[in-house]
Amino acid sequence: MRCDCARSIPQCILSFTNSIFLFVGLLLLLVGCILLVAPNQVVYLIGSLANEEENQVMRTLVSLSTPLVLQEIGKCLLGLSVVILPLCLCGYLGSLRLNSPLLILYSLLILVIWSVQLVLLICLPFIKNKLILAADWLINISLQHYRGNSAEENLVTVLWNHVMSTFSCCGYSNYMDFQDSISFRHTKVKNQIVPESCCILESSMYPSLISPKDENCIFTPTKYNSYFVQGCRESFEDFFIGNFDIIVLTVIFIITIEITVVILSACLCMLKPPEQVYSLQINRSLEHLESNGAQIKQ
Predict the structure, then answer these.
(1) Model confidence, pTM
(2) What does the DSSP 8-state code read for residue 129?
(3) Within the chain, where are the H helices?
């Protein structure tokens, strides 16, 4: 009875947990394929739903409903599913079938992720400046892909528009970031200086539509009609500092879950599959019967 409990408890926990993530990975794969293959149909569907029901969620979906943005979201979902599915498949099949090679592979992958997270958490006070420089570099790289009003919005443009509209800021340092962006310079309208999301917006139309209160704001930004000199870097830092405790606790929680999964996988690896246990019991019973039979004959 003790052996059954030692096997069934870790097996149930691992198989159930990985089955949930496996379902999520398959769902991401399905949605990603739909967005990548049929973005125009999804745009039509979102538009139909928005006409029937008006709320904040539908407004946000409408702001994302362009074929290019949906295709790029689909690519991101496909990439995420490619990461999730193999890992969860190893854990699910390994725990379900008590397959030691799959469980070992699963544990090694989790240990690699766990080690990276733990090292970053421990070394965070010492590499804080380098991480900030890396984040600055990535953010500035993303601004190089920002598009102006004369081109179709991509995912980077939509994300930056919502960030700048939410935090009431313009660019990462200030509006000059867009003057340094090759993509923005090639796709802006004539005499445009800042994107519309740098302006003070009509709050009643946001987020489904980004519409400045002053139509001339993108050509002649001032401190009265825009946030053109206020970069988003300070807002990012304030948001990170304000939520630092939550971020650290979340990372610690994830690390704890990961090491628990590794321990459960190790427990299953050390246990023999039920078939082997039953065969050993049968062999011992046969040997016992043969020895009893030999004693009776004597």
Answers:
(1) 0.79
(2) H
(3) 2-37, 39-52, 56-64, 67-97, 100-143, 155-167, 176-179, 182-187, 233-242, 244-270, 274-297
